[in-house]
Amino acid sequence: MDWSRLTELKTELDGYRPMPRELVLNLEQWFKVELTYTSNALEGNTLTRQETAVVLEKGLTVSGKSLVEHLEATNHAKAYDEILRLVSERGVSIGEEQILTIHDAILKGIDDANSGCYRSMMVRISGSQVVLPNPMKVPKLMEEFSSWLKKSSKRHPVEIAAEAHYRLVTIHPFSDGNGRSARLLMNLLLLRDGYPPALIRTRDRIRYLESLEEAQLGGSKEKFYKLIEAAVKRSFDIYLKALAGDDRPEEPEYALLKIGQIAKQSGLTVPTIRHWVKSGLIEVSELTPSGYQLFEEIVLKRIQEIQVLKDQRYSLEEIRVRLNS
Q1: What is the mean pLDDT of the chain?
Q2: Structural domains of the chain in order of their starting residue, each with its CATH number
Q3: pLDDT band at 292, cuts 50/70/90?
Q4: What is the full DSSP assignment across 91-154?
Q5: CA gap 321, 54 in Å, rounded
Q6: pLDDT tens across 121-179, in order?
Q7: Residues 110, 72: contact at Cβ < 8 Å?
Q8: Active-site residue numbers?
Q9: Helix (H) or strand (E) run with residue 53 in it
Q10: pTM above the 0.85 mark?
Q11: Phi, psi dihedral angles at 318 (to 5 degrees)
């Protein structure tokens, strides 16, 4: 894996330091909202990007969304603030204590009995063939993982951060919140070494999960590393474009469909699709500056699955739970 392009981008970004304080604060807030939205959405939270911003920035609740979904948003934002605090404390090594603090922030008020604690039961990843470690082995595995984190390494900082994410999620030390903890740990390591956070988009969810599973089943980590590399590169682009005064939206990597096109190809009405989006059944891939919703073509397959379940008389909430699991 060649990480040289990211090294070049870091050198380019370092040339702008010290960056204007107002711009830094603005980007930190943007990343807090975006990372909270995407990280929670990867786990099935149905708050949209805009709703997440309202919850975090205005302190308001969103009609039709559960208390847990609101807590997942505010908790993730607090956990992100915690990693920023750790980054600011020069010389602090990252280990079990910091990981447990991050996890405690994620589950606070949601599952207090397990927040900041290692699991005591066997768990399985839904839909995966990966066999996770016995809970009796978790404390030892975390001790070894912590020792690995604290060792100096000649590997590229982004590779170390991605590897830390992979190792933590593979140990799966917690009853819940493992993915969010792993992504926050990865971003803590990136920020500490002067790199921007890796933002894994909701549209990359399947590729992200499949690349992790491939490595966990004994295959190569190459796909996972490439996905993280692309995520960090996009974040560099956001910083560099902001510093250059370029606010044009990111160009999509592949064609996205407008809501009218989705309606025509699926035989549904536009209001029905909008309702399913609001209900968390369908994901919007992009929102244009004018407010138009854009979708991946794979949404058409999702719509077929929803219609099959509706024919079986499942409610929309039951369908959402089944599909997101």
Answers
A1: 92
A2: 4-243 (1.10.3290.10), 257-324 (1.10.1660.10)
A3: confident
A4: TPPPSHHHHHHHHHHHHTTT-TTTTTS---S----TT--PPPPPGGGHHHHHHHHHHHHHS---
A5: 24
A6: 999 887 788 999 999 999 999 999 999 999 878 899 999 999 999 999 999 999 999 99
A7: yes
A8: 172
A9: helix 49-53
A10: no
A11: -65, -40
